[in-house]
What does this fold into?
Amino acid sequence: MLYLGSHVGMKAPKFFLGSIEEALSYDANACMIYTGAPQNSKRRPISQLKIAEGKALLQKAGWSMNQVIIHAPYIINLGNTVKEETADFGAEFLKEELLRVDEIGAGILVLHPGAHMKAGAEAGIQSIVKRLNDVLNQDETDVVIALETMAGKGSEVGRTFEELAEIRQGIDKKERVGFCLDTCHIHDAGYDLSDFDSVLDHFDEILGLENLKVLHINDSKNVRGAAKDRHANLGDGEIGFETLAKIVHHPRLDNIVKILETPWIDEKAPYKEEISALKEWSKSHKS
Ligand code: FE
Ligand code: FE
Ligand code: ZN
It folds into this structure.
């Protein structure tokens, strides 16, 4: 089954109900939300977010809560050993975020692993492992943290599958840590998506395909290996529509939720058109 959607807002007054309405307006059957603004840590109590109303609507549309993905805010940096209080804060926030995700009823929380702030990737990785263990060993939910593949901008950790594997290897509760593959990010990190089967084989070998929990489908404004992280609309970037459509419909990725995070065009969301174009592509490429 193809589960395809985009990130959607969650704003007053309709909150989660509005998120699902937005997703349905794009003809999506999946979506990704933030529990509040992605850039800050201000969060409302879940009781205010119209979760039951949103759930009723998504069930009416035939979805389950597995089709709703949550993304943690960008401010969490578990890899910061230069300013330990930043990592402390991130761990504290993450602890609460897992409870929020559980209360909402979703199962997957996408998390940027962190940035080492020039202390070196190894120091960053060790810090991330320690913080994740601190959080997960105390947490009693079964929410899976999906570590996102990063572009390698600045001192981001997680630009190679090997770095992500090293993090998971250090985790006590390994069943609680999986991965989110972002096409723009891995392209910017240097992976050649035009040979996607090889990328997938490599992913499987290093990280295990069974641990791939969600994909972010984005084109990239920059050439392969640029380490930039600037998303482009599908077909407007260096990856190209055909390559991305093949990924979306790849048989080995069936049933894994796919989320568009492409930029808005003239203050309008492009998701309805992009979802429709991806579905059309598969009609003309049925084997
Ligand atoms: Fe992300
Ligand atoms: Fe992403
Ligand atoms: Zn990105």
Notes: The chain has a mean pLDDT of 97. DSSP finds nine helices and twelve strands in the chain. The pocket of fe (iii) ion (ligand 2) is lined by residues 148, 182, 216, 261 (CB under 6 Å). The longest helix spans residues 84-104.
